[in-house]
Amino acid sequence: xxxxxxxxxxxxxxxxxxxxxxxxxxxxxxxxxxxxxxxxxxxxxxxxxxxxxxxxxxxxxxxxxxxxxxxxxxxxxxxxxxxxxxxxxxxxxxxxxxxxxxxxxxxxxxxxxxxxxxxxxxxxxxxxxxxxxxxxxxxxxxxxxxxxxxxxxxxxxxxxxxxxxxxxxxxxxxxxxxxxxxxxxxxxxxxxxxxxxxxxxxxxxxxxxxxxxxxxxxxxxxxxxxxxxxxxxxxxxxxxxxxxxxxxxxxxxxxxxxxxxxxxxxxxxxxxxxxxxxxxxxxxxxxxxxxxxxxxxxxxxxxxxxxxxxxxxxxxxxxxxxxxxxxxxxxxxxxxxxxxxxxxxxxxxxx
Length: 351
Description:
- The chain has one domain.
- It has helices spanning 55-61, 66-90, 93-118, 126-138, 145-157, 167-170, 177-188, 191-202, 210-231, 236-246, 248-261, 270-273, 281-286, 295-300, 309-319, 331-338.
- The chain has 16 helices and no strands.
């Protein structure tokens, strides 16, 4: 971990007259929080200098709720097949549109539980964690969890470091409105999704990647048969599984990624590398399920299961690690600031 915080990049303010600046929440022209809302954190009997819990609090927060997590895994499957079954039963085009959007939302839920499994926090039994994480969560949404885990651990070891796998999602913000909407169009129209699908298919040429990719493709054959049986049509899998993964999921994933680390930089202080956003029920329903919106708390201590992140955040707030002014009031404010830059601001990613 680099002990020196990165230089905060300069960016021009927006010329959009409807734009509302976040006030003291971000340094002008950047996504960084001002020093006034950071402050020096004094460690205590419950917390280390870096904010990680110790002692009895740590033991309490580290407990994995196995039964609850099993119910969550079952729940994402029931939702996924349930919305398709309901659309078939209703027989109305509106129902199919709703099913399409809800399947895109389901991809988010699969991804977040896969993230939990990659940290080996889904089940306390490691074999069960990895088995369920692969076959019931990651492979159904086209993801090689083995490679994901390696990249994600590099992300946690040093956010914005030389091995950061998702730097293309984070760098260069604030960007111009034109660049922002170009990214959204590419995601919504499946351009980004096709890029990822093509990379997965091409990976069959690699002798090391081929076994995992073939397992993913075999899982998709099962998904094809399952969704045909549930939806009553052969085209249910491509239209209501593959296509939402290539479109709806891409938009929601980018919005979440920007809200987690967009425009920040390397620092030993997690409050500088990770955004802190106030949570709403709507946001939790659509794109930050399973407490993934408590992202600063997650980066402070990656050993805490998602169910305990609100408790960790509350403790960090009571101890003064998280100051009231650190939080973005909502996701909309953060996103508006993220595309408030000039055309020249930052280094827009190719993703």
